[in-house]
Design brief:
By secondary structure, this protein is an alpha/beta fold. The chain folds into two domains: 1-39 and 72-160, no CATH class; 40-70 and 201-363, CofD-like domains (Rossmann fold), CATH 3.40.50.10680. It is 49% helix and 17% strand. It is built from 16 helices and twelve strands. The chain has helices at residues 3-24, 28-38, 49-59, 77-86, 92-100, 105-112, 126-138, 141-151, 181-187, 205-213, 224-232, 235-243, 266-277, 293-302, 311-319, 346-362; strands at residues 43-47, 66-70, 157-160, 167-172, 177-179, 191-197, 216-219, 248-251, 283-287, 323-327, 330-335, 339-344. The strands form three sheets. A seven-stranded parallel beta sheet has the order 3-2-1-7-8-9-10, sandwiched between helices. It has a three-stranded antiparallel beta sheet with strand order 5-4-6, covered by helices on one side. Strands 11-12 form a two-stranded antiparallel sheet. Helix 1 (3-24) crosses helix 7 and helix 7 crosses helix 8 (141-151). The chain is globular, with a radius of gyration of 20 Å.
Length: 363
């Protein structure tokens, strides 16, 4: 990889972002918004992938006191290549969350998500290379992420759950051992147990401190075995959350994931999260919006199906001591690369979360 090209792009981006943020910082309206957001509750959001970044885009409209804790077990695409070639932690999910918390995430996303299509840089996104450059400058991935948090003046902060090189491990019901995020994803529906190696990996101090500072803890949405649960497999982090007295909310996905959670229902998702955490979350948020038939058929071809509750699941969740909240929060939109896709509606989801939080406070 050309250090010259990487350096040029890094310098240009830093200068561009610094100039833009400096110009905006004097706006009276912006200062008023920042004061309101600064008085919001402290949110700890745990996960990774598209699900976590979708959540962050919604809750940043209610508070800037956000800490996003991101899994670092990604092995695919640009992140996997940088992990193998440079020995750095995978930057992709961290980048997506930083963009989601930016003041103008659409504008920033176009820049940081720009993907090279030829030469040595083919397949890499500019944001991943920027994180690589800052990591090389700082000598530490967590410090690099903190630098990015400050540089882009995001609403909140993003933290890797650990700076140790960890690998996701699992064992199926048939006794087959599987290693790595990609293999875990392929065998998710048949998994019997899941763990990290090394088993004694430690979360960074800032992650543990964020639990102490939080008013509510959000788990998900996101890939069950490869985004949400990996964070909870660090014993010290899981224990810290488990012993916290603040409400813990699990946000269930809208659909099952091909291979990873194929054939699983909402109760099974909740039981896996509870097993990793060591306790049952206080609340689970589930979509009640009807999903258009064309979307169901499109996802069905890939092996995914809608996650809805029925009477028996509601009773099972109740017997677990968890409060189930059903609300409409599905959004269908046209993606330039994927066609019509289904995601959580960021604003609706955030509104539900803060309604739950306010009700808890009032009680």
């Amino acid at each position: 990889m050309s250090y010259f090209i990487l350096g040029v792009f890094t310098t240009l981006l830093i200068l561009f972002m610094f100039g833009r943020l400096k110009f905006r910082s004097g706006h009276i309206i912006e200062r008023a918004i920042n004061r309101r957001l600064s008085s919001g509750p402290y949110i700890l959001a745990v996960g990774g992938g598209t699900g976590l970044s979708t959540l962050l885009r919604g809750i940043k409209a209610f508070t800037r006191n956000i800490t996003a804790v991101v899994a670092v077990t990604d092995e695919g695409g640009s992140s996997g290549r940088l992990r193998n070639e440079w020995g750095m932690l995978p930057p992709g999910d961290v980048r997506n969350c930083i963009v989601a918390l930016a003041e103008n995430d659409n504008e920033l996303r176009k820049i940081l998500d720009f993907r090279f299509d030829r030469g040595e840089l083919s397949g890499h996104s500019l944001g991943n290379l920027l994180l690589l450059a800052v990591t090389e400058m700082c000598g530490d991935f967590s410090r690099a992420v903190e630098q990015m948090n400050h540089l882009l003046s995001i609403r909140g902060r993003v933290l890797p759950v650990t700076t140790e090189g960890i690998t996701l491990m699992g064992r199926t019901h048939e006794g087959l051992n599987v290693k790595g995020e990609l293999e875990i994803s392929k065998h998710g529906a048949s998994l019997h147990e899941i763990w990290l190696e090394p088993v004694n990996a430690k979360p960074i101090k800032e992650v543990l401190d964020a639990v102490d500072d939080s008013d509510v803890i959000l788990l998900g949405p996101g890939s069950l075995f490869t985004s949400v649960i990996p964070n909870l497999l660090l014993p010290d982090f899981a224990a810290k959350i488990r012993n916290s007295e603040v409400p813990k909310i699990y946000i269930c996905n809208l659909m099952t994931q091909p291979e990873e959670t194929q054939g699983m229902n909402i109760v099974q998702h909740l039981k896996w999260v509870s097993a990793a955490l060591g306790c049952v979350p206080d609340f689970v948020i589930v979509n009640s919006d009807p999903i258009p038939e064309d979307i169901i058929e499109s996802y069905k071809i890939q092996g995914a199906s809608p996650l809805y509750l029925d009477y028996h699941q509601r009773e099972d969740i109740k017997s677990m001591g968890c409060v189930c909240i059903e609300a409409p929060m599905a959004l269908v939109f046209e993606s330039p690369t994927e066609g019509r896709v289904l995601r959580h509606d960021s604003q609706k989801l955030a509104s539900i979360i803060f309604k739950v939080f306010r009700k808890i406070e009032d009680d």
